[in-house]
Design goal:
Belongs to the MetA family. This protein is an alpha/beta fold. About 30% of the residues lie in helices and about 25% in strands. Strands 1, 2, 3, 4, 5, 6, 7, 8, 9, 10, 11 and 12 form a 12-stranded mixed β-sheet that branches.
Length: about 300
């Protein structure tokens, strides 16, 4: 089944070229079903690239999904045309009264900033609280996962001296958790971050569990028992070349980055990277949509119950 996205969104042509079915509003209106309402708060600098990555992962499901792209009001992107933002994004203030089955909050390149120093932190806190009242299940990626843990539970991330970059082997801690249904006992996933929270800190929060982790990268998938919050510390959405692009960018900025681990054959950046994470990344998002969103959300979104995720 398709995802419904704004007409003429650039991602549409990319997805159609990959034989991924999308539809516009006119065709979606003829479908006599209740589609899932999913919002994406896109905090990444290159909005268009991230849109393609996330929409690709949302597409592998039999459900029809209406997608709203959300921006923080008055936040001018540095790497995305303003015309694109004006054409395809909703200001948060425009959707503040709307309710959603699912919300995805992306990472952001804010690794070394204190949360309180982020120029939109007050708005971010407002959105986190809004999600408790207006969203059935929220999926936080990378920086957003750590930010949500700080806001709701007061747990501060720690910072590595060197950036964690590469594709790491993970193990499934809870094979019966529906979010990991169909996963191999070991699988790979990309990471690109400085921050981390110890698995023990996640597990210390009543109702939270680390359900997948890595000896090298730490906690990867953390889920609430009520399925209404998922924290993913890596980047299952990354394209094959994303880590390479980041590595080259950091090289050009004279940051002396380490070669991403387990990414290039023989650790040779001149060779095409080995892609070994996309199947499990797709399955993770499909399971989230099916088991954490579709199977739990009320038919009438006005019946959403506020999440109980306050600091304990």
């Amino acid at each position: 089944m398709p995802i419904r996205i704004p007409e003429n969104l650039p991602a549409q042509n990319v997805l159609l070229g990959e034989n991924i079915f999308t539809m516009d509003s006119q065709r979606a209106a003829s479908q006599d079903i209740r589609p899932m309402e999913v919002a994406i708060l896109n905090l990444m600098p290159n909005k268009i690239e991230t849109e393609v990555q996330l929409l690709r992962l949302l597409s592998n499901t039999p459900l029809q999904i209406n997608v709203d792209l959300i921006r923080i009001n008055d936040l001018t992107p540095k790497h995305t045309p303003q015309s694109h933002m004006d054409a395809f994004y909703h200001d948060f203030s425009d959707v503040v009264e709307k309710r959603y089955d699912g919300l995805i909050v992306t990472g952001a390149p804010l690794a070394l900033l204190d949360y309180e120093d982020v120029n939109y932190w007050d708005t971010m806190k407002t959105i986190l609280e809004w999600a408790n009242r207006h969203v059935q299940s929220t999926l936080y990626l990378c920086w957003a996962a750590h930010a949500a843990m700080y806001h709701f539970h007061g747990i501060q991330r720690k910072l590595r001296e060197e950036k964690l970059s590469g594709v790491f082997r993970h193990r499934v801690n809870d094979p019966l958790n529906e979010l990991l249904r169909g996963f191999d006992s070991e699988f790979y996933a990309p990471h690109s971050r400085y921050g981390y929270i110890d698995p023990a800190d996640y597990n210390s929060i009543p109702g939270l569990s680390v359900i997948a982790e890595s000896d090298e990268a730490g906690a990867y998938v953390v889920a609430s028992d009520d399925k209404r919050m998922v924290f993913i510390t890596g980047h299952p959405e990354y394209d094959p070349e994303t880590l390479n692009d980041e590595y080259v960018r950091d090289l050009n900025a004279d940051l002396e980055p380490k070669i991403p681990c387990n990414y290039y054959p023989d650790d040779d950046p001149g060779k095409p990277p080995v892609v070994r994470w996309r199947a499990h990344g797709s399955l993770l998002f499909t399971n989230w949509i099916n088991y954490y969103v579709y199977q739990t959300t009320p038919y009438d979104l006005n019946q959403l119950v506020e999440k109980d995720q306050r600091k304990r």
